[in-house]
Design brief:
By secondary structure, the chain is α/β, with parallel strands linked by helices. It has helices spanning 35-42, 66-79, 92-103, 119-126, 129-132, 138-148, 155-164, 169-175, 177-181, 184-195, 214-219, 237-240, 242-255, and strands at residues 12-16, 20-24, 46-50, 86-90, 108-112, 202-206, 226-229. It has one domain (12-255): Rossmann fold. Helix 1 links the parallel strand 2 (20-24) and strand 3.
Length: 256
């Protein structure tokens, strides 16, 4: 991955003190999804939580690609002198975190419930491409997608996340352009190019099982990568089991 630049100034929260941690949210959401964990994380770390471009209170400014989003984040990291942060990303935010680690200094990545083997996702998104491109159908498709991944999230957390979620068609189509517009071979080549440059400790934590062969697939591309599956927790394992998540983050960071 090349040409990491920033053109968008991101809305963000910075709190706590200690080793720097950057938190990146999922698609259509914003930094507020991390609120139940922020104060506890800030007890041992300097925590930077951002609204990625096109999300939350940050500007809606194309392009919506991983390199641009990683560049935006790095501009804040550099501004605050947060050298070699641990980057934690949920869902789409984990793709940005991975791209960040491929090009910029980090001490590790924690990927929360984002498979990096995108072929299956390409088929899933391709099946509803017409609806995604239809402004009237788009909100229903996005709502259905998230409903299918809810898992064991409490009613309180689900209402909070649903209130935060703000699907913008331009942003979603921009982010999903690789899976919509590239051939399978081109998509795989893009993924392989990013993963080949990741050489830091990497933990993939899944609430939705990515499949029996996924751990071996990931380790063959990122040396030493660890995969954990928290069965039944769904797409938000960090919110379903916050104590366990914080313990895992602390242990991973100590070992990184």
């Amino acid at each position: 991955m090349t040409d990491i630049t920033a053109t968008v100034e991101l809305e963000h929260d910075l709190l706590g003190s200690g080793p720097p941690i950057v938190l990146l949210h999922g698609i259509t959401e914003d930094r507020r999804t991390w609120e139940p964990l922020l104060q506890r994380m800030a007890e041992r770390a300097t925590v930077l939580a951002v609204d990625l471009r096109g999300h939350g209170a940050s500007p809606v400014q194309a392009p919506f690609d991983l390199a641009s989003m990683a560049g935006d984040v790095h501009a804040l990291v550099a501004r605050y002198g947060l050298d070699t942060p641990l980057v934690i990303g949920h869902s789409m935010g984990a793709m940005v975190a991975t791209a960040y680690a491929a090009a910029l200094p980090t001490r590790g990545v924690i990927n929360v419930d984002q498979s990096l083997d995108l072929v299956g996702f390409q088929s899933q998104v391709g099946a509803v491409e017409a609806q995604l491109r239809n402004p009237d159908a788009f909100p229903l498709v996005i709502a259905g997608l998230f409903d299918s991944m809810r898992g064991a999230v409490s009613d309180v957390d689900w209402e909070r996340i649903s209130a935060i979620r703000a699907p913008r068609q331009e942003v979603v189509l921009g982010l999903w352009s690789p899976v919509l517009d590239l051939s399978t071979d081109e998509l795989n080549a893009m993924v392989e190019g990013v993963l080949a440059s990741v050489d830091v400790p990497y933990l993939a934590l899944h609430g939705i099982d990515p499949g029996d062969g996924y751990a071996a697939w990931l380790r063959s591309r990122i040396a030493g990568a660890e995969v954990q599956v928290w069965s039944g927790t769904g797409h938000y394992p960090h919110l379903v089991e916050p104590d366990r998540f914080l313990e895992v983050v602390a242990g991973f960071d100590r070992a990184a």
